[in-house]
Each structure stands twice: as C-alpha cells, then as structure tokens.
Write a structure and sequence with these properties.
The structure holds 2 protein chains of 2 kinds. Chain A is an alpha+beta fold. Chain A has 11 helices and 12 strands. In chain B, strands 6-7-8-3-9-10 form a 6-stranded mixed β-sheet, with helices on both faces. A 4-stranded antiparallel β-sheet of chain B has the order 2-1-4-5, covered by helices on one side. Chain B starts with 5 loop residues before the first strand and ends in an 18-residue tail after the last strand. Classes of the chains: A alpha+beta, B alpha/beta.
C-alpha cells in the first residue's frame, strides 16, 4: 500500500510526464484501432461486393442455348445439375432479352434487364434497400426490382410506376416493388421469369437463357462435362459452357494482403507510442535517479526502488489505457458510421484484442521507461546523494 | 559502563586499486554527544560520514553501531537500521522537489515498517512545528528559502527519532546568520531527544558549538583543542516527544 502511495505521488508530482504518457498511449491505441476499423470496413465492403456480383465461393455461370426454347432447356439442365450436385447446391435460371426495354414515368430508360427466378437471391443475397424482392407467387401487376444505381439515376423507388416490353409486344405495365444493392455499377432491373413468360416467348428470337449455380465442390469443367453427357442422353443438342463466376476468394486474398499492410502501419504507430513513452520516462532520468537515491539514503530497501518505479509506470499505463479504450471505441463508432460499409454489411466489431494489445504495449514501454532511473539509482552508490 | 553508540576501530577505506582515503580511524561517540569533524576539502569527511551512516562500508577494521557489528549485518538490515536509527542532513538539503514539505518529512516513515508508521503524519507535523515550519506543511520545497529547506531536512532527519544524526556541511549552502540559526536548532533538537550528532564541517564556528571536534587529516582522525562553550542547557522545542 505504501508503494502505491509513493508511486501515486510520482504520478501526481510529474503531471506533464503523466499527461504526455497518457496522450501517447491514447494516440497509439486509437491509431491502431482506427486502422483496424478502416481496413476491416474495406475488407467487408469488398467481400460483400464480390458476393453480390459473383456469388459465394464456387459459383458457376452456364450459358449456351438461345431462342424461345432455351428457357425450357435451361430448366431441365438446372434440375439435372441440382440432382448431381446434391442438397448443398443452389441454382437459378436467368435470361436476357436483347430487345428488352424499361419505361419509368413515361420515359424509356437505359438499363440491363435480368429475367430470373426469384431464387437467384439465395445465391446472391442482395440486401433490400426498399420494398420487397421478386415474388414467387403470381401478381396482378408485374413487379420489378431495380438496383441502387437505377433508383438513383432515374429517381425511381418502390411504388414507382413502370413498364417492361420487347420489340414484339407493347410494354406490360409494371410497378417497381423493391430496390436492392446488387453491387453492379450499371442500372439494372430484375423481373421474374414466370411473370414475364409471355413477353419472353413472343420475343424468343433474341432470348438467351443461362443457369447460375453454386455448390461446395462444383468445378466449371466438371459440371460442363456432366451436362454434355446429359445433353447427349436427352438428344437436345444443347452445349453448355461453364465459367467460374465468383471472385470472392481472390478479392479476399487481395484485401487480406492490403489489410496486413494497414495493420503494419498500426503496429508501427504502436511502436512510435512505445518510443514516445520511453522517451518521456527517460527525460526525467536524472531527477528520478536523485529522488530514488535520497529514498535509499533515508531507508528504502534496494528492492523498493524498482518496485516504486514499476508500480508508478503501471498506474500511468493503466490510467492511459482506461482513457484510451473508451476513446478509441467512440472514435471507432464514428469511423464506422462515417466511412462505414454499404447497406447490408456490418462493420467489424470493435477490436478489443488490438485495444488490449495497445494497452499492454503501453504498460511494457512505460515499464521500460521507468526502469532506467531505477536501474541507475541501484547502480549509484547511496553515498552519492551526499555529493548532489 | 555502557558501550558508546558508535565504536570504530582501525577503520580503513580506500578506492579500488587507488589511494587510501581513511586509515586507522578510531572513533567513539556516546548517545547524545555532538561531535564535529573538520577537515579541508577533499579530506574524505563525507566518505567517513557515509560509512558511519551505513551508506558505505569500511574496507578494514571494525564498526559497531548500537552494539551491533555492522560488518555482520545483511543488506536489508543495513537499510532498515539506516532508516530507523540514523538521520541525515545533507549540504544541499536533498528534498524531493515534487513532494510537499510534510510529505518530504514523511519519506523516512513511508519506507518504514507498518507499525513504525503509526501516527506518522502527526509526528511529521510535530517536527515541522519544532523547526518553525508548521504553517508550511503543504508548500513545495521550491517555495521555501534555503534556510527553511534545511529546517525541513532537519525535521525529516528527526522524524523517526534516530539515535544518530549525521549532518554533512549543514550550513554549506546557507549564509552565515542563517547557518548559525540552523546549527543552534539542530543542537537543540538532538539534545532534546538524546540523539548523537556528527557534523562534518569546515566552518570553525559550527565546530566550536559541538561537544568536541575531530580533525580529519591524511585520512586519520585526531582530536582538536577543546571547543568553545556551547549552549548545552537551552530550552528545547516539542520534537522531543
């Protein structure tokens, strides 16, 4: 208890040193936590974009047939693929129509139109920004879902009146039922295959069907070979071309490398903190050495000298840590809110491990900085105090 | 007859591979006795004082303090004895600058065993009052004059009621008038609690106020002529409790 009291006197007796040490640690911990927050948010964003645009790991695009019959051929191939890939697989038939046009508020808009089974969202989990996703059930009015870019470019949102048509028919009246974040940079409209069957059939000349599927162990060449065998059995002459769609693993690897660079900057910041604290401690070396020598002359044991400095340094480090952790947590929230990930992506949780690491580094460096005077005092003959 | 508080016989001290600093030092100091050690600068007066104060050791000879052979005492016992039984007054006061006056006086008690710390603050205030600085308890040393700082150092030296008080040039940093007042105060207080006093000085006035004076020449102590009469019977302030 006396040691703590003596150490506290040192903490209070050198307010500038204490404040500088606390500030150094505060900046160090906050810095490393901020770097972690920024890099974590970047990683989450990139991974999310990769997931939305390319699907999860092992997602394959199957393309091949064109024309009005291609949808039926795709549906057969999808059932076959699901059967051979097992229950862990997910798939959806998609189609594009070269002549598709979308009208919003009476004006035709330039946008990609994707005709898809609503189950597409099981593969690519588009976060809903407004309204709902495509319905599995028949609707009185054709429901369209637009992406964020479309909604922003054409000032359209859930509830907006629209129309979808091709070359062969007048446009069907439709309503935008939802807005999603699909990671795409171009305006895109999603329409249900089932709800647009007539439109697609009539405009079959420019129809291209495809399948998007994902499974834990799927390989593009493997599924392509199996589908070729299936086509031979069916004698429908369809040759499916499989291409790997997902980029999430590659993106994640690149982001991890970038993140490591970020974190090395954070660690360098912590090291700078360590040197700053040690420097602050060493700057009072002579004064503290004198004090410790006086204490030795007045009865302090040899063991008491390093203990006083140890306790004192840890009081400073813990006080700084007590300030640094909540301060960095607040800053972290601010960073997450200001530069946070897009909708549907949670920022990484507050990195307690890094905060604790920062405080530990502070404790160790405060200790190192304080042991120098203790070491010098122990090496100085007690009688030297008589010549001071 | 009781053994003197300090008994030094044929003590010798030299630098490692260097010259002899102290040689054949014999010294007896009785409880309550005031002794001056004079000598020129560089005559190793402070070296002798450090050895007497258990801050250093003699290389040869014997030193018995309060009946105990110092050479046989382990390091922790030397620390404890130095803290409990020996007080120090240094030439440059050696106060801890960031501690208040009363906290400076309390320093020896902070390093004492728990039972010796009881009533420490009251005792510190009592000692400060006895040196006339009861009102300055909360001030920092830098706000005091040199004479006042030396009085704080005296209060600190006496706070544990030591049996021996060692003063190294206690007036060396003070003007003549202030120095005389400090020495008078020192004598009053040590006599009040029967503390032996050894003052190292090169000031003959200071030496004259002690019971006896020894000269340190060429590393050896020799008695000097009887000192001038000193104020042995003065009334003493309250630090004697």
């Amino acid at each position: 208890m006396q040691l703590v009291r003596i150490a506290l006197q040192g903490v209070v007796g050198f307010p500038l040193r204490t404040a500088l040490s606390c500030l150094s640690l505060l900046v160090g911990v906050t810095g490393v936590v901020s770097v972690y927050a920024a890099s974590g948010t970047v990683e989450a964003t990139v991974v999310q974009d990769a997931l939305l645009t390319g699907g999860p790991v092992a997602t394959v695009d199957l393309t091949g047939p064109s024309g009005a019959a291609s949808l039926e051929q795709a549906a057969r191939a999808r059932r076959f693929a699901e059967r051979i890939l097992g229950p862990g697989s997910r798939s959806a038939v998609t189609a594009s129509l070269e002549s598709a046009r979308v009208t919003v508020a009476g004006r035709q808009q330039d946008a990609d139109v994707v005709f898809a089974e609503p189950r597409l969202r099981r593969i690519r989990p588009f976060p809903l920004l407004q309204g709902t996703w495509l319905s599995e059930e028949p609707q009185l009015v054709l429901g369209l879902v637009v992406n964020r870019v479309f909604a922003a470019d054409y000032a359209a949102g859930a509830g907006s009146e629209a129309a979808l048509g091709g070359t062969a028919l007048d446009a069907d009246p439709a309503r935008i039922v939802g807005v999603v974040d699909d990671g795409a940079q171009a305006p895109t409209v999603y329409a249900s295959l089932a709800e647009t069957a007539d439109l697609l059939r009539v405009n079959g000349a420019t129809l291209h069907a495809g399948i998007e599927l994902t499974a834990p162990d799927v390989s593009a060449s493997g599924i392509q070979d199996r589908l070729r065998q299936f086509a031979e059995q069916q004698d429908d002459g369809v040759l499916w071309k499989a291409t790997r769609r997902d980029t999430i693993a590659q993106q994640a690897a690149e982001v991890t490398a970038t993140r490591s660079s970020f974190l090395s900057v954070g660690v360098l910041g912590l090291l700078a903190t360590a040197f700053a604290i040690a420097n602050v401690g060493l700057s009072a070396l002579r004064e503290r050495t004198n004090e410790l020598s006086i204490r030795r002359a007045l009865g302090a044991s040899r063991r008491a000298v390093p203990l006083i400095m140890l306790v004192e340094s840890q009081i400073i480090a813990l006080a700084a840590g007590a300030l640094a952790v909540p301060a960095s947590a607040l800053l972290y929230l601010l960073i997450a809110k200001t530069f946070g990930a897009p909708y549907g992506v949670s920022p990484p949780p507050y990195p307690w491990a890094f905060a604790v690491l920062g405080v530990l580094v502070g404790m160790v460096t405060a200790l190192v900085g304080s042991l120098a005077p203790a070491w010098r005092a122990l090496r100085t003959p007690i009688a030297a105090v008589m010549r001071e | 007859m009781a053994e003197p508080l300090v008994v030094v016989r044929a003590a010798r001290k030299s630098l490692p591979h260097g010259p002899v600093l102290l040689d054949h030092v014999d010294l007896d100091i009785d409880p309550g006795e005031a002794v001056a050690i004079v000598g020129r600068s560089g005559s190793c007066k402070s070296t002798l004082l450090a050895a007497l104060g258990l801050m250093d050791t003699f290389d040869a000879g014997s030193y018995r303090f309060a009946g105990t052979d110092v050479a046989r005492m382990p390091a922790h016992a030397l620390d404890a004895t130095r803290g409990a039984r020996i007080g120090f007054v240094f030439q440059r006061f050696s106060l801890i600058p960031h501690l208040s006056v009363v906290e400076n006086v309390l320093v020896p008690l902070r390093h004492a065993r728990a039972r010796d710390r009881r009533g420490g603050r009251a005792r510190a205030m009592e000692c400060l009052s006895s040196v006339g600085l009861g009102d300055a308890a909360r001030r920092l040393p830098r706000h005091l004059s040199g004479g006042e700082q030396q009085r704080v150092a005296i209060a600190r030296a006496l706070v544990r009621r030591p049996r021996l008080l060692l003063a190294d040039e206690p007036t060396g940093s003070l003007d003549v008038e202030t120095g005389a007042r400090v020495v008078d105060l020192l004598l009053e207080l040590v006599r009040a609690q029967s503390t032996a006093l050894v003052v190292v000085t090169h000031d003959r006035e200071v030496a004259a106020s002690m019971d006896r004076t020894l000269a340190l020449r060429s590393g050896t102590l020799t008695p000097m002529a009887p000192p001038l009469p000193s104020a042995h019977d003065r009334e003493v302030p309250a630090c004697s409790s």
